[in-house]
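Support request from a user on the community tier.

User writes: "When I paste my structure tokens into the form, the page sometimes reloads and wipes my input. The last time it worked, I copied everything first. Here is what I submitted, just in case something in the input itself triggers the reload:"
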């Protein structure tokens, strides 16, 4: 299964592994994109679909740190997420866990790499690994694609203003 959008977002589910790979290019250097991933206020502005508001309760984007945030729409709580930052390598890589509070047994291990492409452009590649194919398919069916694509559109707008 593979999806490509006009915004250069590619979401791939390996047919033989419980993984999801997301690739996206940006018109900004990797250091700027990395900052948007690790700065609490910036992250809250772009993560998720346009229709939701993100409120971050806990945020320590450093190796050994953790996070917790909620998404709401029109004041109604939709979902809560939490995880741990296992490795945060400035401007290069983030390894973290990601858990949807509504399914606490479904922990995803995520690795994001940030690559400068030159001329002020960069590419990020995210690899999410879950424990079963069913969990991977449920993650995809949850509306994840809308959140990823719209979130990266919001990130494009935010990066242009930084």
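"...and here is what came back when it finally went through:"
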């Amino acid at each position: 299964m593979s999806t490509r959008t006009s915004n250069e977002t590619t979401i791939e589910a390996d047919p033989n592994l419980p993984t999801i790979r997301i690739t996206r290019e940006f018109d900004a250097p990797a250091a700027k994109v990395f900052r948007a991933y690790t700065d609490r206020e910036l992250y809250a502005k772009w993560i998720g679909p346009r229709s939701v508001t993100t409120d971050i309760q806990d945020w320590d984007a450093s190796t050994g740190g953790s996070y917790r945030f909620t998404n709401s729409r029109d004041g109604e709580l939709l979902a809560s997420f939490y995880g741990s930052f296992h490795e945060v390598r400035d401007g290069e890589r983030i390894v973290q866990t990601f858990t949807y509070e509504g399914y606490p047994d479904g922990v995803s291990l995520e690795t994001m790499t940030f690559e400068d492409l030159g001329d002020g452009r960069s590419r990020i590649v995210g690899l999410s690994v879950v424990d079963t194919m069913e969990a991977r398919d449920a993650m995809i069916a949850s509306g994840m694609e809308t959140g990823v694509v719209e979130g990266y559109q919001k990130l494009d707008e935010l990066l242009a203003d930084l």
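Agent notes: The reload is a front-end session timeout and is unrelated to the input. Residues 117 and 123 are 7 Å apart (CA to CA). Strands lie at 2-4, 10-13, 19-26, 53-59, 66-73, 76-89, 93-100, 108-118, 121-129. Escalated to web team.
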